[in-house]
Amino acid sequence: MRLSVIGCGYLGAVHAAAMASIGHEVVGIDVDERKVASLSQGEAPFFEPGLQDILQEGIASGCLRFTTDMAAASWADVHFIGVGTPQQAGGSAADLTYVNAAIDELLPHLNRSDIVAGKSTVPVGTAASLMERVAATGATLVWNPEFLREGWAVQDTIDPDRLVAGVPAGDEGQRAANILREVYHTAVAKDTPFIVTDYATAELVKVAANAFLATKISFINAMAEIAEVTGADVTQLADAIGHDARIGRRFLGAGIGFGGGCLPKDIRAFSARAEELGRGESVTFLREVDAINLRRRERAVQLVIDALGGSVFKKNITVLGAAFKPHSDDIRDSPALDVAVRLHGLGAWVTITDPAAIDNASRIHPQLNYVADRDEALREADAVLVVTEWDEYRRELDPHHAGDLVNQRIVIDGRNCLDAEAWRAADWSYVGMGRP
Ligand code: UDX
């Protein structure tokens, strides 16, 4: 099939390359000339395992190309919209400027019977508001939310847990759903659930899933707060409740909380949309979810202050991790970086390292001391803070070896990812989050 993907950021670039890898001919379109130039060379503009390979294969085979020229879309039959929906400046609602612009610029290039498939995360009601403009060209609008996780984006796109298609009523909607089934033929052949809904349900599935995941993390972080005043251990608690299949252990990792380009902005946008719909009270709990999440960053800072006897002023603090999670160079709303910046603000000498995110972090927060080599970063530390659970710190950092590099053997495990026993056995003062 011939596909266009409009918007080649995180979602769009991965989608374009993944669709080429399953046999489609794809053109990726973006207004950013530098991004298009980089993608056209087979260079991924961000760190994502596996992306570079499928980009290069797609380009070499002639099935994948990138351009800034929207007119290239007229060659395709199915058009995916993958532009960003950031948080509005000064507000919490989603900014739909890029979605509206993408649709407006695409309209003159649509052919009758084309499919326009929205993938961006949008407030419920958006597809209905765009439908008429698309229908006027004879094309059909569907909403096909994306659930990919950074670090697993290629795998999640090619082999998703489920596919959701929000379609208009009647034969037109059925035809559109069938075309999407052909697009995702490899997943469909594996009997991946393919759920056909109306627009509103498809839009809500996406925000509900992210709201649930954020709530799960803040729930366990709330339990960590209670554990902290009672001497209980939140990691054992999570193991024990996680054995109940109705609860499940995943996303019960207590620590410094969630960040990234999706969960924080999506729960805020959901609250804002619910208010607009007169149903703010239905999701008031999401404000609490956000507040609990942000409190964990303060808590991590306080643990460092306490461990250093009441002040971090002019203390050497080594922060292991800057990305919002491992296997990513993304620092958007990164709790790791936020904690590092707060410590610097309190007068600490902060040295920070990360296997992938140093370049991005140093552009935004040049006041921190960035060191690429982990061992170099650990030298002379008065305290070590683990804030992104990369394997380089979680599995591969030997506490005896680390102990020989630092000034004082104090480690604050902001992700509860270290083996506390092993670190204590190597004479470290180990402090976890929500653990005695
Ligand atoms: C998320 C959703 O998982 C994905 O389905 C959606 O499409 C986009 O948003 P992503 O932002 O890539 O994906 O990250 P995710 O793996 O969900 O992690 C989000 C944040 O939660 C990270 O900062 C992570 O460190 C944190 N987290 C995750 C916890 O603090 N505890 C956990 O147990 C799990």
Automatic annotation (TrEMBL):
Sequence ranges assigned to domain UDP-glucose/GDP-mannose dehydrogenase C-terminal in this UniProt record = 318-420
Pfam name, any one: UDPG_MGDP_dh_N
Which InterPro entries does its entry note?
6-PGluconate_DH-like_C_sf (IPR008927), NAD(P)-bd_dom_sf (IPR036291), UDP-Glc/GDP-Man (IPR017476), UDP-Glc/GDP-Man_DH_C (IPR014027), UDP-Glc/GDP-Man_DH_C_sf (IPR036220), UDP-Glc/GDP-Man_DH_dimer (IPR014026), UDP-Glc/GDP-Man_DH_N (IPR001732), UDPglc_DH_bac (IPR028357)
Q: What is its EC number?
A: 1.1.1.22
Q: Which organism is it from?
A: Kocuria aegyptia
- Protein family per UniProt: Belongs to the UDP-glucose/GDP-mannose dehydrogenase family.
Which reaction does this chain catalyze? UDP-alpha-D-glucose + 2 NAD(+) + H2O = UDP-alpha-D-glucuronate + 2 NADH + 3 H(+)
Please give the name of this protein: UDP-glucose 6-dehydrogenase
Pathway, per Swiss-Prot/TrEMBL?
Nucleotide-sugar biosynthesis; UDP-alpha-D-glucuronate biosynthesis; UDP-alpha-D-glucuronate from UDP-alpha-D-glucose: step 1/1
The protein's UniProt keywords, in alphabetical order, are:
NAD, Oxidoreductase
Q: Which NCBIfam families match?
A: NDP-sugDHase (TIGR03026)
Is DNA damage one of the keywords?
A: no
